[in-house]
Amino acid sequence: MSRLRPTRRVAALALALVGVAGLSLASASQLSINGTTLQAGSTVVSSCQPASAPVVVTFTTSYSSTAPAGFRATGVTFSGFDAACGGLALKARLLDTTGAALGAELVGTVPSAGGSLTLSVSSTAAESIRSVSAVVYG
Question: At 28, is the secondary structure helix, strand, or coil?
Answer without folding.
Answer: helix
